[in-house]
Every structure is written in structure tokens, then in C-alpha cells.
Q: What sequence folds into this?
């Protein structure tokens, strides 16, 4: 008929409608997932931490299970149980130490509450008496007790999270025996399942190496801050060392917070601007040397993430999950980089996430973790 639209026009309208519907569904799905991440943050944070701990020990369990004691071979179940006991013991010890140091900091902070406003205001005396008085009144108006009670209540949740993480890790260990079978049955293609397994192993190796290097650097930095605090006879020397160790796992801003904290504690306790400046300069040099010289040298090719991407990931996961999200931001970004590198449609995102714009190649999946550990050049 004369008034019927051409078939091509009808197909274009249907295609456009389908694209709009697909876009709307993606936006809705993203909003729902984000809502669930915020509402179920406690469980999801514990689950993410458990997966990281499981990946840290998975290779170790496999290595132990391959060892022989004479003609006998260590059963995989015994290796898993031993790893589970070690993880549970380490987590409980770390939680107890962290809670003890938080309690020490809170008690000491309450003791310094009266002198803190004047000490902080004196740091800005160079701005003039009016500015110093305004800062003194502003700091004095802060109800420190409410913040301390809030910090204490949040600290009490660490024990609950630790127990939940231990339970998650235990169930992951119980399921690891059937993981390969489940993966093959889920994908339905043995070749593709092997490729997916290599991608997962690449993620595990990359995250493990990052956490290993970060732990070593954080221990060194925390130890040097402890020695510095003890040299100037600060009361919170142990707490400052432990807090510095923990904060260094937050990329970029963690070292800044740790340096500012030790300077603030020094000025509140000693009240000497020259001593505060000296400690601030020394702590800054320690953080710069470890974070910008030793850390990149050891990290090598294992962490080839864009600095801007790290900041975006830090801001996003910090907004969604708070402080725990900041700790998990880099491992999550490493996972995204590896996955996007090996999915053709997502490879442009991998180019944006990588530091040099060179995401992982298929050849890297066949290379062992020693490439990162010993900086072996890629095979031709």
C-alpha cells in the first residue's frame, strides 16, 4: 500500500528501539548492582577479602601437596587444613594486635584532647593572631569524644568481619577440589575452560605478587617510622609504626595520611615546631624512598596500572565501601586489567587501565609467575 512505511525504515526503528532497551537495562542493572554493593557492603567486603586470602594460599597449598616425604605424598586435604589453621591464627592475632593498638590510640588521644587545640593552632601562628585564634576555636568546637566513640564502635566490627572471612575461606578451600570440573561443565568447552583457568591464574599471580611486595615495603616503612618515633621518645611509637604499615596499603594517599599523623602526634606531645618539622621531613623522605624508588623497582611488570586509573579506583571503591574499599581498590583494578586484556570487546578498557597503554597479551598467559618475580624477559 502507498501509506505503508518501507521495510528498511521499520527495521531501523526496531534496531534503535532494541539499542535503547539494552542501554536502559544496562543502566538499571548497574544501579541495582551498585545499590547491593552499598547495602551488602559488610558481606561483600568480607567475601572479597576471603577470596584474596584464598588466592594467596592456593598456590602454596598446591606446592605443598606436590611434595613427598619419602614414598609418601602429602594429601591435598591435609595441606588445605594446615593452610586454613594458619590463616585463622594469623587473622585472629592480627585482629587482636590491631584492636589493642586502636585502644591505645583512643586512650592517648583522650589524654591529649585538652592540649590538642592549642598545639594545632600554634602550627598556623605564622598566619597571624586572628587566624590562629580562629583555628583554635574551630578545633576546640569539635566534639572529639563522639568521633572516638564512633571509631571504637567501628573497630568492634573488625572481630565480626574476621570470623566471617575465616568462614568464607574455609568454604572456598572445601570447594577448590571441584573447581576445575565445575569450570569445564559451566563453560562447556575444555579449550575455553583452560584459557579461563589461565586468566584466573594470571590474576592470582599478579595480585599475590602485588600484596607480597606491598607487605614487604609496608613492613620496612612501618619499622623505620617506629625507630624514628622511638628516637624522639614519642609515646605512640608502636602504634604509629603499625598504623603506618596498615595505611601504606592504601595507594597514594595512605603514605600522606601516615606522615601527617606522625607530625601531628609529635606536635601535640612535644609542642616544639622545630622537632615537628624535623620528624615531618624525615618521615616524608622515608615514605618517598620506599614508595617511589624501592616499591616501583620491586613491582616491575607485575603492576602496570595507570596512576590516574588507580586514583579513580581508589575514589570509586572508597565511596562504595569506605576505608576497606580503599584497601581493595588496587587488587580489584588488577583483576579488571587482566580480564579486560583477554576479552576482545573490553580490550580498549584494558588499554586505558594500563600504564603504558600495553595490556596483557595471550603469550603472557603461558608465562609463569617467575616472569614477575625475577623479571625474565618475555619469550620471543
A:
Amino acid at each position: 500500500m502507498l501509506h505503508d512505511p518501507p521495510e528498511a525504515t521499520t527495521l531501523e526503528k526496531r534496531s534503535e528501539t532494541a539499542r535503547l532497551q539494552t542501554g536502559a537495562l544496562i543502566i538499571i542493572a548497574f544501579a541495582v548492582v551498585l545499590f547491593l554493593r552499598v547495602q551488602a557492603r559488610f558481606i561483600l567486603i568480607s567475601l572479597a577479602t576471603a577470596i584474596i586470602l584464598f588466592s594467596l594460599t592456593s598456590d602454596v597449598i598446591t606446592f605443598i601437596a606436590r611434595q613427598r616425604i619419602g614414598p609418601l605424598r602429602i594429601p591435598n586435604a591435609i595441606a588445605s587444613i594446615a593452610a586454613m589453621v594458619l590463616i585463622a591464627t594469623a587473622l585472629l592475632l592480627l585482629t587482636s594486635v590491631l584492636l589493642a593498638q586502636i585502644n591505645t590510640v583512643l586512650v592517648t588521644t583522650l589524654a591529649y584532647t585538652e592540649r590538642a587545640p592549642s598545639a594545632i593552632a600554634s602550627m598556623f601562628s605564622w598566619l597571624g593572631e586572628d587566624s590562629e585564634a580562629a583555628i583554635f576555636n574551630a578545633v576546640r568546637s569539635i566534639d572529639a569524644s563522639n568521633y572516638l566513640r564512633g571509631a571504637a564502635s567501628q573497630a568492634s566490627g573488625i572481630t565480626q568481619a574476621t570470623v566471617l572471612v575465616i568462614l568464607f575461606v574455609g568454604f572456598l578451600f572445601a570447594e577448590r577440589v571441584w573447581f576445575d570440573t565445575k569450570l569445564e561443565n559451566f563453560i562447556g568447552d575444555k579449550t575455553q575452560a583452560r584459557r579461563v583457568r589461565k586468566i584466573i591464574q594470571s590474576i592470582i599471580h599478579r595480585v599475590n605478587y602485588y600484596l607480597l611486595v606491598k607487605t614487604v615495603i609496608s613492613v620496612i616503612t612501618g619499622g623505620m617510622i617506629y625507630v624514628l618515633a622511638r628516637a624522639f621518645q614519642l609515646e605512640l611509637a608502636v602504634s604509629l609504626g603499625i598504623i603506618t604499615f596498615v595505611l601504606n596499603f592504601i595507594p597514594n594517599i595512605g603514605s600522606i595520611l601516615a606522615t601527617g599523623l606522625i607530625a601531628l602526634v609529635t606536635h601535640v606531645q612535644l609542642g616544639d615546631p622545630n622537632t615537628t618539622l624535623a620528624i615531618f621531613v624525615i618521615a616524608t623522605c622515608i615514605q618517598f624512598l620506599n614508595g617511589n624508588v624501592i616499591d616501583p623497582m620491586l613491582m616491575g611488570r607485575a603492576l602496570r596500572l595507570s596512576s590516574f586509573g588507580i586514583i579513580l579506583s581508589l575514589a570509586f571503591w572508597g565511596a562504595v565501601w569506605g576505608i576497606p574499599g580503599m584497601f581493595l581498590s588496587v587488587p580489584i583494578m588488577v583483576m579488571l586489567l587482566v580480564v579486560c586484556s583477554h576479552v576482545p570487546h573490553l580490550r580498549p578498557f584494558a588499554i586505558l587501565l594500563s600504564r603504558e597503554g600495553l595490556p596483557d597479551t595471550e603469550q603472557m598467559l603461558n608465562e609463569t609467575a617467575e616472569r614477575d618475580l625475577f623479571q625474565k624477559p618475555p619469550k620471543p
Summary: Confidence is low (pLDDT under 50) at residues 368-380. Residues 190-231 form the longest helix (42 residues).
